Amino acid sequence: MNLEIFHPSKVCNGVINIKGSKSITNRLLFLQSFYPSIKIINESNSEDTAVMKKALNSKNNFIDIGHAGTAMRFLTSYFSIVKDRQIILTGSKRMEERPIKILVDALRKLGAKILYQKNEGFPPIKIIGTNLMSKDVSLSSNISSQYISSLMLLAPIIDNGLRIKLIGKVTSEPYIKMTLELLKELGINSIFKKNIIEIRPKKKINQVSYKVESDWSSASYFYSLIALCNEGEIVLNNFNKKSIQGDSCLAKIYYLLGVMTKFDNGRLILSKKKIEIKNVLNLNLVNSPDIAQTIAVTCLGLGINCNLKGLHTLKIKETDRLLALKNEMTKLGSEISITNDSFHLKKINNTLNKSCLIKTYNDHRMAMAFAPLSIKYPIQIEDFEVVKKSYPNFWTDLESIGFKTITS
């Protein structure tokens, strides 16, 4: 189904309650399976989290996680240590194209029994649960931080813990630090120094309640709306000034695009700031690639040049996000060039094409990144329900601040 979305007044005001971060929630769910004393408050309501919970509670020997990349990486480690289980872990057609070899190789060094069922280095995989050995393990850190976080979550379960050596430039380092901070807050001794991560074992965690901060990646779309609207103020609840989420860098980035951020007792207040926006935005997003699509579309709507780098991981996401961005933004009349790790937008002097249908490529972030353009003129989104992967309430939340939607 397609969705047409528009805003009659182009003025955005309202209060939004975004659910908890799926990145934090999924890490806690992994740990909760081994430490049931952990209580999770304000957990994510995303499809990715639902998939993760279902898999962790499943007694089946065949587990299909669909498009959920985080679940694939985390569950590979999880099931490797669950004794007396043999499971096939699989996913969508796209998931079978997303590499898992770096993680599997590292787990095998620890004694894991994992077999590829189709193509070497890719899902589906057969995992035979067994005891893993504590030892030093090395892996490349420039492909996906999820491989590293997956091992970090497993480390306290292994007798004597784990020492992980990272090889190469670290990609999305804030996600590694997020995992590290969660472990520390739960009383698990861990340290990240230079390129070495050391995590000590933990037999038991005392009863603890963990309130998950709302999702900064989801907040990015409201930053984009404020940047593009004529005027307005949006309040987002349950956000921390000192956040463990890497995408909290949004506050600094969007200041350059005319958005003021104010923190007030757990509330994130976004308002329009009258500043002269520079003609070009140059950013290295190696630590926060998930917000690249939103930033690119914001720059398109503002009519400024945009050069983003550090985006090599986008090619192995739900879709090749760099190519998808190029395809859809070119439709709108913009001039786009991409490389394996960068995106370049050249502003256009003419008005954008307004009759285009934006394809989503089974990628939730494609749908949500383009939606803020509808504050300027109506936008049509194909397969709009794909947002349930990370933010099921997205369209309802937009309607609550004055947007109108028509399905066809």
Termini separation: 6 Å
Helix content: 25-40%
Q: What is the gyration radius calculated from CA atoms? A: 21 Å
By DSSP, the count of extended strands is 22
| Contiguous helical run count | 12
The mean pLDDT is 94
The main pleated sheet reads as: 4 strands, mixed
Shape label: globular
Order of strands across the biggest sheet? 20-21-1-22
Question: What structural class do the secondary elements suggest?
Answer: alpha/beta
Strand content: 25-35%
Low-confidence stretches: none
Q: How would you sum up this structure, described in words?
A:
The structure is a single chain. Helix content is 30%, strand content 25%. Strand 14 (259-264) and strand 15 form a beta hairpin. The protein is globular, with a radius of gyration of 21 Å. The protein has helices spanning 22-34, 47-57, 69-80, 101-109, 145-154, 173-185, 216-228, 250-255, 292-302, 321-331, 364-370, 394-400, and strands spanning 2-6, 11-16, 38-41, 62-64, 86-90, 113-116, 125-128, 136-140, 162-167, 190-193, 196-199, 208-211, 231-237, 259-264, 267-272, 280-284, 305-309, 335-338, 342-346, 357-358, 379-382, 404-407. By secondary structure, the chain is an alpha/beta fold. The protein contains twelve helices and 22 strands. The mean pLDDT is 94. The strands form six sheets. The chain has a four-stranded mixed sheet with strand order 20-21-1-22, covered by helices on one side. A four-stranded mixed sheet has the order 2-13-15-14. Strands 4-5-7-6 form a four-stranded mixed sheet, covered by helices on one side.
